[in-house]
Amino acid sequence: MTAEVKTELVAGILTVTLARPDKKNALTNEMYGAIADAIEGASAGNVRVILVQGEGDSFTAGNDLGEFAAQAAGSGPAKRHVERLIHALANTNVPVVAAVQGKAVGVGTTMLLHCDYVLLSEDAQLITPFVNLALVPEAASTYLLPLRIGHARAFEMFAFGAPVSATNALAWGIANRVVPNAELRSEARRIAEMIAAKPSGSVTAMKQLMRDVARLVSQIDAERAIFSQRLQSAEAREAFAAFAEKRTPKFH
Ligand code: COA
Hints:
The structure is a single chain. This protein is of the alpha/beta class. It has one domain: 2-enoyl-CoA Hydratase, Chain A, domain 1 (Alpha-Beta Complex), CATH 3.90.226.10. It is built from 11 helices and 9 strands. The longest helix has 19 residues, at 213-231. The N and C termini lie far apart (42 Å). 44% of the residues are buried. It binds coenzyme A. The site of coenzyme A (COA) has 15 residues, from helix 2 and strand 5. Coenzyme A (COA) binds at residues 23-24, 26, 61-66, 103, 105-106, 129-130, 133. It comes from Cupriavidus necator. One of its GO terms (molecular function) is delta(3)-delta(2)-enoyl-CoA isomerase activity. This is Enoyl-CoA hydratase. InterPro entries: ClpP/crotonase-like_dom_sf, ECH/Chromodomain_protein, Enoyl-CoA_hydra/iso. Pfam families: ECH_1 (PF00378).
């Protein structure tokens, strides 16, 4: 249990709210665990829709970089809940709606590729800085992103980690709609209610047919093996130290 992830089940809609706004909802191991619990519980129970959102001005700044630094130094948690969360997202047949404002960094963007309906606010920016951190992309995004937006755009997003605007994310097919910031939460709720009103058995069966879960899981596991090696690299340690010291990393 952590206060930094709030869950609420109302009328078949499980809302999962990232609630660490002072750190741009950067995700700790404990937060990953809480989200994974929620999604696993929803998959096993009678939840009709999962709605993921974040408090404050950013959806999430991705993995907590202090925790990455600890892992790189060999003092991270024995059990990394991020892996459970990514598997839960890949495995769930419950439809997932995401409401994204401000920055969606790292897993904040790659998790959207597992969501079924993505709403962006006008100020949303999708950022995938894995290579800048001397890591590799995860959550099956090395498979899903090129499939979704084409190799050229995916390579550029991954290699440079430059922010992708809401307009481009919509045009490229990463999102369903862009709405004014003030309407994001209410619109996401409305979409979740529309999905929840559909015959749930049909929706979950459709979602299952639309996705090759075995393929996703094999990519997730392949990425994870390389990611774990990269996390221990001198380049990654330099990237995390640079973030903590608010300076540009030096890789040469
Ligand atoms: N891990 C830990 N803390 C983070 C964080 C992260 N991923 N992202 C932001 N924070 C913290 C900052 O250290 C800062 O803390 P402080 O107030 O104690 O100094 C606070 O959140 C606000 O962040 P700040 O950088 O001041 O906000 P910003 O609006 O200028 O920039 C981001 C927002 C998300 C662009 C920027 O914080 C950033 O690049 N974060 C790192 C993202 C990242 O690389 N994630 C890993 C992906 S794999």
